[in-house]
Amino acid sequence: MDTAYIADTIGAIGAIVVGFFAIRFLRKEWKLKGADIGVTKVMLTLLVIGCVEALLVGLRIVGQTPLSTH
Amino acid sequence: MAVQTEALGHGHGYGHEAMTQEEYVEQRDLRFLGFLLFLFTDSIFFTAYIFAALYLRSAAPVWPPVGVERPDVNLGAVNAIILFGSGITAHYAMHRLKESRFIGYVWFTIVTIILGSLFLGGQAYEYAHIHATWSGSTFGAAFFTLTGLHGFHVLVGVVYLIVTLLQSVAGKYTPERHFGLTAATLYWHFVDVIWVVLFFLFYIY
Question: Quick check: is B20 in a domain?
């Protein structure tokens, strides 16, 4: 098992776990009102997008760019 | 000066204990506005550098330039998840304090600090192993400038969390009055969100 495979697996599982909790918090905060809550909602939404990025990398769908040679 | 500080609410200990609830809410709202403005200016700072990196990319015939290697995306993803995970633990810590569960707050904050430090360690490892230098290519210049700037923000965030943790232990924050912690959590989320963009820019795009 190579390092990249282990890193991908950790990345993908981590992305799912973190994304799950981020969505859970987002759902909880969605009904609440307040300026700080509003900012937190935006931040959590972007965090979910970050988890999707990491998941796509973990699943080797994006980000596998080799050394530039041309 | 002493009179001025007292008038601002800093004359006795940490200040806000002596305020009425109305005074506290007014002060908190003003501080929140100030903090939002700070985050806004900081995001403009990052945006300027991000657009500079995009300009360099669009001007280059090949990206990354010939002979320059992108950072390891697999390790980058793990490092990103460590930072994103710290955003979740920071959020948990904040909720624990609001629910008057102080021990939970302390533990989640400690975990956040550890995860933030791990991210910095991962970043240092990456700097030591990447096949690019600051002055060797436009990619290297953009990468080291933006990730270095972000790393500095993470370092500040870790120190900020440590300070708020010590202040909490000293009894500064209560479930009703904890603006310092709200600001620290928002700052930490901000640092997370910036990494969402930088991760895409340097590791994926």
Answer: no
Cβ-based neighbour number of residue B75 at 10 Å: 19
Residue B47 has phi, psi (to 5 degrees) of -60, -40
Range of the domain at A51: 3-57
Q: Domain span at residue B151?
A: 32-204
The answer to whether A11 touches A58, Cβ cutoff 8 Å, is yes
Enter the tokens of residue B56: 């360099």
CA dihedral B127, B132, B137, B139 (to 10 degrees): -60
Interface residues of B toward A, Cβ cutoff 8 Å, are 29, 32, 36, 62-70, 72-78, 80-82, 84-85, 87-88, 91, 131, 182, 185-186, 189-190, 192-193, 195-196, 199-200, 203-204
Domains of chain A: total: 1
User: How many domains in chain B?
Assistant: 1
Q: Could you tell me which of B125, B143, B124 has the C-alpha nearest to residue B133?
A: B143
Q: Is A63 helix (H, G, I), strand (E, B) or coil?
A: coil
Question: For the segment A12-68, what is each residue's pLDDT rounded down to a tens digit?
Answer: 999 999 999 999 999 998 888 887 888 889 999 999 999 999 999 999 888 765 544
Q: Is residue B42 part of a domain?
A: yes
**Helices B138-169 and B179-199 meet at what angle, rounded to 10?**
160
